[in-house]
Amino acid sequence: MQKSKFLNIILAATVLVMAILLSTKDDSSDKPTTTPAVKSENAQLTTSDSTMVPFKKISLGVKTEVYPKPAFVIGSYDKEGKPNIMTAAWAGICNSDPLSIAVSMRPATYSYGNLTETKSFTVNIPSAELAKYVDYAGRLSGKDVDKFKETGLTPVKGEFVNAPYVKEFPIVIECEVTAFHDLGSHRQFIGKVIDVKADEAILNADGRVNVNLLNPLIYGGGNYYETGRFLAKVGESLDEIDGKPFVPDYSQKYANDALEVIHSRKSVRHFTDQPVSKQQIETILRAGMAAPTAVNRQPWAFYVVTERETLDALGEQLPYAKMLHQAQAAIVVCGDMEKAGNLKDKGYWVQDCSAATENILLAVESIGLGAVWTASYPYDDRTKVVIKELNLPGKHVPLNVIPIGYPTGEDVPKDKWKPGNIIWR
Quick count: other Cβ atoms within 10 Å of Cβ 212? Predict the structure, then answer.
């Protein structure tokens, strides 16, 4: 009995010691293993206060974490010639010569049978504005509904292949099936590109697609996204490779695109000779006209200058606008005294046109261009120059001249954050 009692005591003590050790281990696992990131004083930044170690990878298992995925809409005819569309994210360019696109589909889809039957399909690339149609085409089956009829989209018979494309989509690619591979859950169709068509409105002067104007839709994590901002041309960052270790900085991430554009804006005084399109100027001016205005008078007029002779003449005579010799365009923001009405004596037109100017500068930054505010009003000599060169009517008073073009990269934003300028009450 005494031996049994002694063994029980030993067993109980052992269990107690193990429990204490496990408890201590659990507690220590919650303690940070690295120094927490310091929170930025700038409240408009998304600051990482995580204690996670950079480059420490966590296994997620077998998941489709490849970003971004395309949001392609595939057009096809069934054996009766009925047009259909479906959304495909399992797709992309798979060969250069001949240029080919691979699209994977489950056998249960209506389009699977169509492509197998007709050996043809189109790839319709949507802009972000078409997201609702892309979502609809991916959620319902052509077996159950006529997607063209329900969406109001327009099917157009392919010029080179036996498949329809969507008139309203900015880029359409006609493909001929040259091979397919049964991979498991999906069959991958290989389509040789026969022709690519693009809306004239999204092309640059050199005939290439302007990605900013296209604003393609992408898919990721069960959501749709716009493409995002321009970062760099291919190859132009090679000289920045220095062989030093890379350490990611998650502490200076802006919470949204608007804040990033605001803090990225800079006064650009050095431009390339790349032309600025009419569509880009209209996009900029739409932003300008979205500015706040006293009692909604909108007392502004915008003169767009693209003639080289006029740009040079203004650049020659305006003391702080010499960059007009390089700029490809300029917007002159004027106050319209007739629209200002009885507010003109109080100078509200200056405030309203200044707000419009700031919107213009932010819009310019957001689409990858550069600009700088050069003052005209209230300097009589500069105002007279602008009035003379543009032959302005008496009711229009030029507030400023804004040179616009593609930046060379020499100009950078300034950090103007000064907590001392804030008085808290």
Answer: 18
Helix, coil or strand: residue 128: helix
All residue ranges of the chain with pLDDT < 50 are 1, 3, 6-7, 9-10, 14-50
β-sheet bridge partners, residue 374? 401
Confidence (pLDDT) at 35: 31
For residue 192, what are the contacts with CB-CB under 8 A and spacing of at least 6?
98, 99, 100, 175, 176, 178
Q: What's the confidence (pLDDT) of residue 253?
A: 67
Q: Which helix (H) or strand (E) holds 99?
A: strand 99-105
What is d(CA 196, CA 53) in angstroms, rounded to the nearest whole number? 46
- CA 405 to chain centroid, in Å, comes to 19
Report the pLDDT value the prediction gives residue 75, as an integer from 0 to 100.
98
Residue 82 gets which letter from DSSP? -
Contacts of 362 (CB under 8 A, 6+ apart): 261, 262, 265, 287
Residues linked to residue 404 through DSSP beta bridges, in sequence order: 329, 371
**How far is Cα 387 from Cα 334, in angstroms, rounded to an integer?**
10
DSSP states of 346-362 as a string?
A: GTHHHHHHHHHHHHHHH
Q: In this predicted structure, what is the pLDDT of residue 30?
A: 36
* Residue reference for tokens 């498991």: 184
Q: If you average pLDDT over every residue of the chain, what do you get?
A: 87
Task: Give the helix/strand (H/E) hosting 392.
Answer: none
Q: What is the pLDDT of residue 408?
A: 94
At residue 315, the pLDDT reads: 97
Q: Cα-atom radius of gyration of the chain, to the nearest Å?
A: 30
Are the CB atoms for 232 and 240 separated by under 8 Å? Answer: no
Return all residues near 50 (Cβ < 8 A) that are at least 6 apart: 36, 37, 250
pTM over 0.85: no
Please report which helix (H) or strand (E) contains residue 329, including its range: strand 329-336
Structure confidence at residue 251 (pLDDT): 54
User: 172 phi and psi, to 5 degrees?
Assistant: -130, 140
Q: Which domains does the chain have, with CATH numbers?
A: 69-220 (2.30.110.10), 264-405 (3.40.109.10)
